[in-house]
Amino acid sequence: MIKRFGTHYFYCYQIIMILELPKNCLVDKFVSKTKFTSQVLVNTKLKDEFTREIKRITWKYKLAETTLMIQATQKVKEIQIFEIELKNKEIPKNVLKLIDKLIPYYILYYFKYENNFAFGITLKDNVSKDYYFSDWNEELKFNFHAINLKIVLENIIKQFIKRVDTDNNNFQDIIEKDKQITILTKEIQALKNKIKQEKQFNKKVELNKTLQEKQKLLGKLK
Fold this sequence. Notes:
The chain is 45% helix and 20% strand. The chain is of the alpha+beta class. Residues 174-208 form a coiled coil.
């Protein structure tokens, strides 16, 4: 696949340069959308979204004991890397939820739209299935060297987390703090909107007090 010329060659070269993975991890297999849309659990609306949003899915890399030469664990046996070519510059989260549901392994997504790229990953062991995404054209520096694949996965996810010190906290604390920051940030914005709309002075004072408390807590988490 690397010997091909044209646009596809450019994208293969681009993703290799960004990820810096050994060649024996390369799979580079086209995955038909019908592999996902033909499933019984897929409704018409989701099938339409697949067609409307996804141009092409390619299984780019397989990170496993046999390819990356790093020990697997019971929790993380393999990590797949999927390249998803989009028809629009918008990441279709419903499509990802279906892919993650049907494929038992962790997947690092490499999205591309025209000359733009982005990354994403799902924290599958979390009940809420938290998704992490990079900004468009943000070159994340993934570290694929570790004593086992669980730590490789944790290092990948850490690259998406910017609001917590990932060097001096254990992984679960990082995830929990990042989640709390997300919740607090949304609550603070909702309070600000409510304060703007509130006309009664006394209620504004109470809302401002709550806002200050949440902002203080957010500052401690960061």
